[in-house]
Write a structure and sequence with these properties.
There is one protein chain. It is globular, with a radius of gyration of 15 Å. The chain starts with a helix and ends with a helix. Helices cover 76% and strands 0% of the residues. By secondary structure, it is mainly α.
């Protein structure tokens, strides 16, 4: 039986793989929402990559909140998240999509680390 972490990892990997297909990108370009977001970066694959990172960060944040990862590991992740969120495209996509995330604690965490 797989752990929650293994299942989540597989889901994220599969989602990114599907999103990066030409077929999905073609369909997504029919959506005003996706076109607005694609316009913020250089390519759809950049957008998908950034969103996947944000999803991963949210998951690691959740694991920390549930005390399921070591404090030292969390500190390393926190520094990594802070470093990645310095990248302008990450901040732009975050600002445009953060309201879609149900975990307001995560939203506050990211916002407090990029101010």
């Amino acid at each position: 039986m797989q752990t929650e972490q293994q299942i989540y990892s597989r889901i994220i990997k599969d989602r990114l793989k599907l999103q990066n297909t030409e077929e999905f990108t073609k369909m997504a370009k029919e959506s005003a929402v996706f076109m607005e977001r694609f316009a913020l970066v250089d390519s759809p694959s950049e957008y998908y990559t950034i969103v996947s990172f944000l999803d991963l960060f949210e998951y690691v944040f959740r694991l920390n909140e549930m005390q399921m990862i070591d404090e030292v590991v969390w500190k390393r992740w926190k520094v990594f998240i802070e470093t990645i969120m310095i990248i302008p495209k990450f901040r732009i996509i975050w600002d445009k999509t953060k309201e879609l995330r149900p975990d307001k604690g995560f939203e506050e965490f990211i916002d407090s680390n990029i101010s």
